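HUMAN: Now follow token order:
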Amino acid sequence: MLIANKRQDNQVKTFMTYNKGRDWRLLQAPATDLDGNDIHCILPFCSLNLQLQTSENPYLSGTISTKSSAPGIIVAT
């Protein structure tokens, strides 16, 4: 399983693949929020987006590595 964020139509969207990148799909948002309120989110107009913030310190564990030559994709496991 791979997860990647991609800028699309001036928005950052999170995609997931289960077959080594052959097919990518948007993530379905949950049906309710933390308070139990309904979330009306229908793909492809609305989807769940994941973001990760890491420390600037490269010696801390859990960082994500990328290269400036990467095509705008960060993949994490």
